[in-house]
Design a protein that fits this description.
Length: 645
């Protein structure tokens, strides 16, 4: 306040700095120290600490000190500081032999007898620290882990995976990193916490040994409720493949008891990978159970969780198969979820919120064993989801209760590119079906070259390929296929290709295929704009509320392989072939095949070389013949394109 210099170590409270008289001193000294890590040298070690107090640090017989011992010993040995400069104290711990585990802690007191230890919760005065804290610092004198090590019952470097993880956490890893080959067998272990923060030059890999099938059964213990928890970890990989079998899944990780996750990427965790594994949580109805969790629960601030990968795993069970959720103080960033089977979940296949820049690509989301839940979401994006690339996923064969509601994809958030996905739902379910459901005030979504098919029969519920009730946004549709052939509609129960609650929310829509049949009495509508039903793609084109959108869209029964396999048959002519201009942002199809760079892409998720229907711009042109299909005699022209009849 008076421009007087603050004491750097023990400033006065409030705005005024000075030399004031205090009453009884109740404030302990403060010790700041960075613990020693593993060393490969048996030589003496130097450590430093800043030790300060508001009144004064004791000297002489009660001066600060370091207590140290071998882990196997019971008697602590003290050393006094070798030098003191202001508040910086330097100590030397004598050398110990290679292979030793050394424990140590620091202690200090002030002139008033207030004492402190580092780590905390030790005690004792005159001299300080005679009672050690319950947990002390530990360092190893050992060669850093490098090269190839083995895990197995006999003749291996380690007998358990948890033992190897303990070594990594405590000893450390040298340049070039270390690979642990897990030999064949079943490993019944407690859950493990991976805490090693390593740079890219010191990676850790746990992988199946060549020819080995590995089963790991994990039981929650010691406060760790994930089979493998990554916390303060980086550049660690669990890989179930073999050399020569890069996509094989030869490690199975089961929840034996008590875990809430199989894999948990927690605080300060980046560039870790779990791939080529079977992650089996098993059936559950508890919302706390997530097979893979990225982020923490609750609202406490998180440390960054960045660029972790979940790749080519078979992810089974849980209330959520994958739960990637940060909070307002720290978004989960750049998570990579690719090529996984995501199945047999109770409620959500993939759930994400407060997450940015995720890659969600080429996953298959489905059920083999039906859930009992009355509501099923294949993919659910909620608050705080931004700028995801959602590409090439297949969502089909969702199975909840027979009369329940199914959502293929629920894309909340902003800035997503949703492309080349296949969504097929409705079989074996008589409830409400949504291929893609968008609501609330969010937008700037690009929905491009997707294929959505709704099929099956209902007795009392509507269905929609794309349902948009958002009150705001600036979304675009380009090159999609929307087919809804569901039956059982009435004048109040209808089956719709495209539902738009607010026309203004779509800035652009064109080059799409809409097919719900063309019978005006079947209660299937190519589009429904608020309360206006439009029977065909031609009706949508002609609607003055919707124009100038979809002036190059059309109607055709797409020649899918089946109701759930939405690839396009190659033996039937179709206007899907080269049906939409290339837009430069969707370069691959649902199978990872490159889009044919001719200036025109195939419409929908599947790019191929199909039999093409010739296009014209004037009514009456001659088109290539289309083989007759049930209810279709040939081709007739409608505005801009054509529709089958």
């Amino acid at each position: 306040f008076d421009s007087e210099v603050r004491n750097e170590i023990t400033p006065d409270i409030g705005c005024d700095e000075g030399n004031f008289v205090t009453g009884t001193d109740l404030i302990r000294p403060r010790i700041t120290h960075e613990p020693l890590g593993t060393t490969e040298s048996p030589a003496p070690r130097t450590l430093q600490a800043y030790i300060a107090d508001n009144v004064g640090i004791s000297t002489g017989a009660n001066a600060p000190r370091v207590y140290h011992k071998l882990n196997s010993d019971t008697t602590w040995v003290l050393v006094n500081p070798t030098s003191v400069q202001d508040s910086l104290y330097t100590f030397t711990i004598p050398g110990y032999p290679l292979g030793s585990v050394v424990n140590y802690y620091l202690a200090a007191q002030d002139d008033g007898g207030n004492n402190v230890t580092h780590p905390y919760n030790g005690s004792g005065s005159n001299p300080p620290g005679t009672i050690p804290p319950p947990v002390t610092h530990t360092y190893f004198i050992a060669t850093l882990l490098t090269g190839v090590q083995t895990i197995g019952a006999t003749g291996s470097n380690y007998t358990s995976i948890d033992q190897a993880i303990t070594a990594v956490n405590s000893i450390g890893v040298g340049n070039g990193g270390v690979t642990f080959l897990i030999r064949a067998g079943t490993y019944d272990e407690n859950s493990s916490s991976i805490n090693c923060y390593l740079d890219a030059n010191r990676p850790v890999v746990f992988r199946a040994d060549s020819g080995a099938n590995v089963v790991i059964n994990k039981t929650a213990a010691n406060g760790v409720t994930a089979a493998f928890r990554f916390r303060g970890a980086s550049n660690v990989t669990i890989d179930g493949s073999w050399p020569g079998d890069p996509d094989g899944r030869h490690i199975t990780i089961n929840n034996a008891s008590g875990n809430t996750s199989i894999i948990h990427f927690s605080d300060s965790t980046d560039h870790n990978t779990v791939k080529n594994c079977v992650l089996n949580f098993g059936p559950t109805t508890s919302s706390t159970n997530r097979v893979v969790q990225v982020g923490n629960t609750g609202t406490q601030p998180e440390l960054p969780i960045v660029a972790n990968r979940i790749e080519n795993n078979d992810i089974i069970g849980g209330y959520y198969c994958i739960y990637a959720y940060g909070n307002t103080t720290e978004l989960v960033d750049s998570t990579y979820i690719v090529k996984n089977d995501i199945r047999d979940f109770y409620y959500y296949g993939l759930y994400t919120g407060y997450a940015n820049g995720m890659t969600i690509a080429y996953n298959h989301i489905y059920h083999v064993t039906a859930s009992a839940s009355s509501t099923i979401y294949g993919m659910y994006l909620t608050t705080g989801s931004n700028n995801h690339w959602i590409h090439g996923n297949r969502i089909d064969q969702l199975q909840g209760s027979a009369t329940g509601t199914q959502y293929g994809m629920y894309p909340y958030g902003t800035g997503h590119l949703i492309s080349s996905n296949m969504i097929a739902i409705g079989g074996g379910n008589t409830g409400t079906c949504y291929g893609m459901y968008k609501t609330l005030a969010n937008g700037n979504l690009r929905i491009e070259f997707n294929t959505i098919n709704i099929f099956g029969t209902t007795t009392g519920s509507s269905s929609y390929c794309l349902y948009n009730s958002s009150s705001s946004g600036s979304d675009s549709l380009w090159g999609n296929i929307f087919q809804n052939t569901r039956t059982g509609g009435t004048t109040t129960i209808y089956h719709v290709g495209l539902y738009i609650g607010n026309v203004a929310t779509f800035a652009f829509s064109d080059y799409n295929l809409f097919w719900t049949g063309e019978d005006p009495a079947d209660n299937r509508w190519a589009a429904r704009l608020s309360t206006t039903n439009l029977n065909t793609a031609a009706d949508l084109m002609a609607n003055t509320t919707w124009t100038p959108r979809d002036q190059f869209s059309f109607g055709e029964m797409p020649p899918f392989v089946s109701d759930t396999n939405l690839h396009v048959r190659g033996d039937m002519s179709t206007a899907i072939e080269s049906g939409a201009p290339a837009n430069g942002s969707v370069l691959f199809d649902v199978d990872g095949d490159a889009r044919i760079p001719t200036g025109m892409y195939d419409i929908g998720a599947d790019e191929g070389t199909f039999r093409r229907v010739a296009f014209g711009t004037i009514a009456g042109v001659v088109y290539d013949s289309i083989p007759a299909r049930p209810g279709m005699a040939g081709v007739t022209v409608s505005a801009g394109r054509y529709s089958t009849v």
